[in-house]
Design brief:
binds iron/sulfur cluster; Rossmann fold; 8-stranded mixed beta sheet; 11 helices; 12 strands
Length: 326
């Protein structure tokens, strides 16, 4: 049996909420609360949900920028959830992250060449001449001229800066890239260029992506499988085409109904969800979605639905966290 690139088992990341003069613990933010997911090598798992659902916390936990509270993170079969900083260091080559805003993630006081070379220096890769050749190679791989190495990030457009961030993220030859809203800050016309670049790099380098976004229209463009997250939990998981064609969870259906159709004659009715996402500090009892679900019944308020298999799309189980077959 092939070992998945990434497997999350009942992963939770909680934060204490403090308040008052003495900053006493007042509660717990259950940002990620029992997530189990699998990503195969060279594939893309899309993670979608509204702001505040815990998807960025999950991404940072996967690359161990945050420590999990419980559960396991298996990277190529090895549990990395409790590794010390020293034992994590070699794994940093394999697990990298691309952030939403390249203006924040790229220090504008350094040249582009220095920024891309930095991870190579930290991990003691090659001589100065070999690293410079690698920087030029990476720039060309992401569609920028080698001469960009001499310039500063602020001299580039938002899309070009995201290309620089991606070059930096792949400098060490990772196998998993966590992309956290990588195109959300970009114009629509530039978004597709960056998505196509990510797809091209995946084919060239065999990268696996955990692709996080609030916009299902973006996620479906790049994903093989999609997980829908709400209040720190997975509501639905399926093959990307199966999820878009046959969504089972009311939350997924609402997200899909919000995708604009390019054909004005085929516009479907949008399902508008009432109210805001409840706080993960005081989540609803039972089904976390029951306060906004148009199908909620008494059982939904008291009993949390398990993530259960309802179908199989090709080789992928279609899983839904709902008591009913809607
Ligand atoms: Fe809606 Fe109940 Fe299903 Fe939750 S379990 S999604 S509240 S019908």
């Amino acid at each position: 049996m092939t070992v998945p690139l990434l497997e999350l088992r009942d992963l939770a990341t909680h934060f204490p909420v403090r308040g008052g003069v003495l900053l006493r613990a007042r509660g717990t933010n259950r940002a990620v609360d029992g997530v189990s997911l699998t990503l195969d090598r060279g594939k893309t798992l899309g993670l979608v949900g509204e702001s505040g659902c815990g998807k960025s916390t999950l991404g940072k936990t996967v690359v161990r920028l945050l420590a999990p509270t419980s559960g396991q993170i298996l990277f190529e079969g090895q549990d990395i959830s409790k590794l010390s900083r020293r034992r994590l260091k070699p794994l940093r080559r394999e697990l990298q992250m691309v952030f939403q805003d390249p203006a924040e993630s790229l220090n504008s006081r350094h040249t582009v060449g220095n920024l891309i070379e930095e991870p190579l220096i930290i991990h003691r890769v090659g001589t100065a001449a070999e690293r410079l050749a690698r920087v030029h190679e990476l720039l060309e791989l992401v569609g920028l001229p080698a001469s960009a190495a001499e310039r500063f990030p602020f001299e580039f457009s938002g899309g070009q800066r995201q290309r620089i961030s991606i070059a930096r993220a792949i400098a060490l030859g990772p196998r998993l890239l966590v992309c956290d809203e990588p195109v959300s800050a970009l114009d629509v016309s530039i978004q597709s260029q960056i998505l196509n670049l990510l797809l091209h790099l995946q084919q060239e380098l065999g990268l696996g992506y955990l692709f996080i976004a609030h916009d299902l229209a973006v996620v479906r463009h790049v994903s093989d499988t999609i997980a829908v997250m709400y209040l720190g939990r997975i509501m639905e998981y399926a093959d990307a085409d199966g999820l878009l064609a046959r969504p089972r969870h009311p939350y997924t259906r609402a997200l899909i109904s919000a995708i604009p159709s390019p054909d004005p004659n085929r516009r479907s009715r949008r399902t508008v969800l009432e109210g805001d996402v409840p706080s993960p500090i005081d989540p609803p009892s039972g089904c976390p979605f029951h306060t906004r679900c148009p199908h909620a019944e008494a059982r939904c308020r008291s009993e949390r639905p398990a993530l259960r298999q309802v179908a199989r799309d090709g080789a992928t189980d279609h899983l839904v966290a709902c008591h009913f077959d809607l």
